[in-house]
Amino acid sequence: MKYIVILGDGMADEPIEQLGGKTPLAYATTPMMDELAAHGVIGMTATIPHGMAPGSDTANLAVMGYNPRDYYTGRSPLEALSIGVDMKETDIALRCNLVTLSDEPGIPYEQRTILDHSSDEISTADAAVLLDAVREAFENDVYKFYVGTSYRHLLIWDKGRVVELTPPHDILGRPIGGYLPLDPVLRDMMRRSFDVLDNHPLNVARAARGLRKANSCWFWGAGTRPALSDFSHKTGKKGAMVSAVDLLKGIAVGAGMDVLHVEGANGGLHTNYEGKATACLQALRDHDFCYVHVEAPDEMGHQGSVENKVLSIEYLDQRVIRPIVETLHEAGVDFRMLILPDHPTPIRLRTHTAAPVPYLLYDSTDRKQGGALYNEANAAASGHTVEEGWHLIDELFAR
Question: Rg (Cα) of the chain, in Å, rounded?
Fold first, then answer.
């Protein structure tokens, strides 16, 4: 038996008037998920423990079977594992987003508005050039910068402390003054990064092409060195991870799973979906379990794009789930597949919530009949509930 998780990051949502009162998941054309739901089980699960922030870090830990209350030490330390930074016990890791702030001339930094947490999904190559400028301006023996993927980068603070910081995607469209770090050095680096980046030649060229400037660093997600238990020891399954983002890769590294690189996978709407499906199928040749993470629905939720969130779900259905399912069926391979979001990213809010999410569990050896279509409303009405999301993987491995 092979086991697969397909994770549509932020895929769950609220009913939207523009979609006739349906959610993007219910509105999207998803014949493959509909087929699996008709012969599987749908239900609801809570991936975010009560009182914890609704992030992809805590939620994906839960989906992988790790209780976030026991294992979570911060988001950025998990990303550090993916980047290959060997954190010392005294290190603090922080996410360093390259964000777009309003650039009206002459106004104080604190009065600027955050327009885009991803700087138009800046490429890693462009971001690396800008991070070199940041490194030249600020790096020393205490603060070290590391390139990640797209807009997501890393700051390591030697002998630092875990400080309260605001995720940039939580304050889109707002003036930033009330959300800046209280720590004076972090605050000063963010303020001065605007001076370094706003008129950088690469940003000037981006603006000339109609792209948003990546004109400020934004620090958040502080945490200490993580310690996850080994996934194969915990579950008895040899696992692999397919993802474009360092957070998921870092969780996999920490859990002793293999991480598969997919050329052209970038975490955006136009990621290499087919490459992810192919990587999953290749992994299943010598692994028991593969976790396929697709970031696009979450990014479209943050952007507030109804049309593109629907499109990202349709891409997930047709370009990732379909080829995996059809290939395994045709090869006569027995498999169990779990499909779900990690958390909702409602278009209305443009950020995450801690609401329960719908899941779909399909078993190729136990095809049921007459199941409802997979969406939030039907899953909630199904009567199937896994109260604590970190137990959901036990349902996947139950056979």
Answer: 21
Domain layout of the chain by residue ranges: 2-72+228-396, 88-223
Where does residue 150 fall: left (phi above 0), alpha (psi -120 to 50 degrees), or beta otherwise?
Answer: left
The C-alpha angle with vertex 263 and arms to 197 and 218, in degrees rounded to 5, equals 25
Q: Which residue has the tokens 């009330």?
A: 178
Query: 2-72+228-396: which CATH topology?
Result: Alkaline Phosphatase, subunit A (3.40.720)
pLDDT tens string 241-265: 999 999 999 999 999 999 999 999 9
Span 317-376, pLDDT tens digits: 999 999 999 999 999 999 999 999 999 999 999 999 999 999 999 999 999 887 899 999
CA proximity to 7, closest of 248, 231, 228, 221: 248
Distances (CA, A) of 325 to 7, 213, 258, 301, 386: 15, 40, 22, 27, 25
